[in-house]
Amino acid sequence: MLSDLIFRLRSIFRKKAVEDELDEEMRFHMERESEALMRQGIGAGEAQRRVAMDFGGVEQMKEECREAGGTRLLESTLQDLRYAARGLRKSPIFALTAILTLGLCIGANSAIFTVMNALLLKDLPVAHPQDCAR
User: What is the pLDDT of residues 61-117, one digit of tens each?
Assistant: First the structure.
């Protein structure tokens, strides 16, 4: 479990090293498969062509490996946050307006809920409220 978390964090923060390892692993598997075909008597060029066809697109295979790693959601979220930060930096007046509006709305919502909770939702602090009605 901990090693899986470490792998995922590493694949996010050390993307270049992970991509290099993925390239090396794909190359290794393709070479091994090609060697196995050559041992069966198939020429080197034909073996490499068959391996490339069997594997499909190398980039597609690498994409499947990346998705299997389970970091795609976090990577896209971080990418979206960076994009949003760049957009807010380009228009600081809009950013300030949005932040102030959200702050005021959240504060007003909290205040209204506190008042409604105290007046309507909580029971009165009376020992026997049914006796007070008489």
Answer: 777 777 766 677 777 888 899 999 998 899 999 989 999 999 999 999 999 999 998
| 95 & 85 share domain | no
With b for 16 or more beta-carbon neighbours within 10 A and e for fewer, the 94-103 pattern comes to eeeeeeeeee
Q: What is the pLDDT of residues 16-41, one digit of tens each?
A: 777 788 788 888 888 888 888 888 88
Predicted model pTM: 0.46
Which domain, by its residues, includes 68? 1-89
Same domain, 9 and 74: yes
What contacts 33, CB < 8 A, 6 or more positions away? 51, 54, 55
3-state secondary structure string across the chain: CHHHHHHHHHHHHCHHHHHHHHHHHHHHHHHHHHHHHHHCCCCHHHHHHHHHHHHCCHHHHHHHHHHHCCCHHHHHHHHHHHHHHHHHHHCHHHHHHHHHHHHHHHHHHHHHHHHHHHHHHCCCCCCCHHHHCC
